[in-house]
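Workshop exercise sheet. Pairs work together: one partner reads the sequence aloud, the other fills in the structure field after running the prediction. Swap roles for the next sheet.
Pair: D.N. / O.F.
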Amino acid sequence: MDELKNKILKTGTTIVGIVCKDGVVIASDRQVTAGNIVMSKKERKAFQVNDYLVMAGTGIAADIQRVPKILSAELKLKELRSHSRPSVKDAASLLGHLSYSGIRQPSMIPQQAGFLLAGYNEDGTTELYSIEPAGSVTKVEDYDANFGSGMPFVLGFLERNYKKDITLKEGIELAKEAIKSSTQRDVGSGYGIDIYTISKDGIKKVFEKEFKESLD
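Structure field:
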């Protein structure tokens, strides 16, 4: 497990999820690295999965792109079979299963990606889950950054600045500053910010910005 975490940390990413009293905020940077080379400056790592879910990924880019497509398809099949929409918890459990299977099936290159998953249920409640690379699922009650290289900077910042029952508006600003704190210090993160909110009113992309030198 320690070896896996080290590999994830070397891939270079900052993602963050923040629980607010009226919803959830998910944010990410845009830089993709391979070792000490910047491969892309415009990669979206946070994205809408379906009508009620948003996720952000850290780790191998191919896995981050592949897994949401599988998750979306599996959730649709589950809905058709059961005649009811899967809950956010159901989706997180399924994502955990996909991660668990991906890391343990015989393969030259096992799946190496961690995820934050947020959504709203049919009763209007919102939830945030963290799915670590080996498949364990944790419900997040305040904030999390999974195992991206920017995690230490984000968690340190949020430890000092997060307050219980913050609003979505406050959460958006907190997410911006958390990503900025990471990109200023983590060589594996940078070049932009994407932010989504998830509430009983639905999913909204509330902020996107590309930057190179100035973070103002």
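Discussion prompt: The first strand starts at residue 15 and ends at 20. What would you look at next?
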